[in-house]
Recover the amino acids of this structure.
């Protein structure tokens, strides 16, 4: 007997699901460019993973292993971390990277130096137990007329929400606080709903890919009422935009590095 194949969900069904739940990545992309959001989340167009994304994902995976080992009181040695790094690097999942000649070895070395830099400069000791590592959380906001918020907290240490980022240049603290406000506010809402208490602050740990890599920590205050209000208004815009099928492009300098540039040029 042949297997029964379920039909692929329609665009209406996909949009319906997107209206029920929203994450920081979905909301940020919708606010950045609604047509790009459509290509990625509604049309489901797949593009090769970039080298930068592969480096960032590998570093993130290794730090996750390091934090989980600390949570279990089984800290990893530097050799253990290097083994974890090699395994994570080889696992491209269903998004293989299209490398330029010689690029992979260079980027692999860069990523490992970022890991070494973090372990050396973060001031987080191997025997300090975190409160949470890579915890998926969701918060029902339907009483506000909003979708359910979903997200994953990279690390909670001493009541602080910590998020990892890789960057090609040294971040400016004021600009970073502004450009990441949607994400950090979502994390704060999720944390407060899950724990029933206010976070002690939020830290963005930027690993900067320079010739001599460095760690830049941007410390932010706990989310304010104004920031939560702004987040909820942005979520309202998301819901309204999806309801109207408002998938228009946002032309600008950011288009030059967009993976959907060719598709966008055909938009009408």
């Amino acid at each position: 007997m042949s297997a029964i194949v379920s039909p692929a969900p329609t665009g209406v069904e996909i949009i319906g699901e997107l209206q029920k739940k929203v994450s920081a990545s979905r909301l940020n992309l919708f606010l950045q460019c609604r047509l790009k959001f459509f290509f990625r989340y509604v049309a489901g167009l797949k593009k090769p993973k970039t080298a930068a994304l592969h480096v960032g994902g590998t570093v993130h995976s290794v730090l996750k292993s390091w934090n989980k080992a600390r949570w279990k009181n089984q800290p990893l040695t530097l050799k253990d971390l290097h083994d974890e790094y090699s395994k994570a690097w080889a696992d491209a999942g269903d998004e293989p990277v299209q490398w330029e000649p010689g690029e992979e070895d260079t980027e692999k070395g860069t990523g490992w130096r970022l890991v070494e830099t973090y372990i050396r400069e973060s001031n987080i000791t191997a025997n300090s137990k975190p409160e949470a590592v890579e915890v998926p959380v969701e918060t029902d906001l339907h009483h506000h007329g909003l979708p359910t918020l979903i997200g994953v907290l990279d690390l909670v240490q001493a009541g602080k929400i910590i998020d990892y980022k890789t960057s090609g240049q040294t971040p400016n603290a004021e600009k970073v606080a502004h450009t990441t406000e949607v994400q950090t506010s979502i994390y704060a809402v999720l944390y407060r709903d899950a724990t029933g208490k206010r976070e002690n602050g939020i830290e963005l740990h930027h690993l900067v890919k320079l010739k001599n890599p460095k760690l830049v920590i941007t410390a932010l205050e706990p989310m304010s009422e104004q920031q939560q209000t702004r987040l909820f208004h942005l979520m309202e815009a998301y819901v309204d935009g999806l309801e109207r099928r408002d998938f228009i492009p946002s032309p600008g300098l950011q288009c030059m590095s967009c993976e959907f540039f060719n598709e966008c040029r055909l938009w009408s």
About this structure: Residues 51-71 form the longest helix (21 residues).
